[in-house]
Design goal:
alpha+beta, 2 domains, four-stranded mixed β-sheet, three-stranded antiparallel β-sheet, Nucleoside Triphosphate Pyrophosphohydrolase
């Protein structure tokens, strides 16, 4: 619990706060924390065993990167609802079968962001509806190839690495 809390910045997605806290070792610290509402991501796998990867422009990363679909939770929205919404919006697909793979803390040293990662299967066409700031293309990639893309450094996004490796382990896909 914070002894003091000051909002340094209120952004569109997150809030940056400075908090004074007592640590478990008895010391007091001043920490800058990114308060984030959380997110959902999914590994969409089609009936041919291919994962739908996004080649998405990320200004903060310096250009295009490979990712699984994901998005920020809206107020009152569950992680599952967010995952379903984002799958349709970003890939133009819906899924009849959903399995929760894990939850990850993106950067627990300074951020509250938790990403809920799902496996999405039994895909069917839906309406793609990209946000104005989303520049991406959808690429069906063999799951074993996606694992190889992690191994060779082509995929560097943390949520994508976690999601693809967990999906490959669950589905018994051989490493690339």
């Amino acid at each position: 619990m914070a002894l003091k809390s000051e909002t340094l910045h209120q952004g569109r997605v997150f809030t940056l706060v400075r908090e004074e806290v007592d640590l478990p070792n008895g010391r007091r610290a001043v920490l800058d924390i990114v308060r984030h509402p959380g997110a959902a991501a999914m590994v969409p796998v089609d009936d041919k065993g291919r994962v739908l990867l996004l080649r998405q422009f990320r200004h903060a990363a310096g250009g295009f990167i490979w990712e699984i679909p994901a998005g920020t939770l809206e107020p009152g929205e569950s992680p599952g609802e967010c995952a379903r919404r984002e799958l349709a919006e970003e890939t133009g697909q819906s899924a009849a079968r959903w399995d929760k793979l894990t939850e990850i803390l993106l950067a627990p040293g300074y951020s509250t962001e938790k990403i809920h990662i799902f496996l999405a299967r039994d895909l069917a066409p839906d309406a793609q509806d990209l946000d104005a700031d989303e520049v991406l293309t959808v690429h069906p990639v063999e799951l074993s190839r996606a694992v190889a893309m992690i191994s060779d450094g082509t995929i560097a996004d943390a949520k994508t690495i976690c999601g693809v490796l967990l999906a490959a382990a669950l589905l018994g896909s051989p490493a690339g």
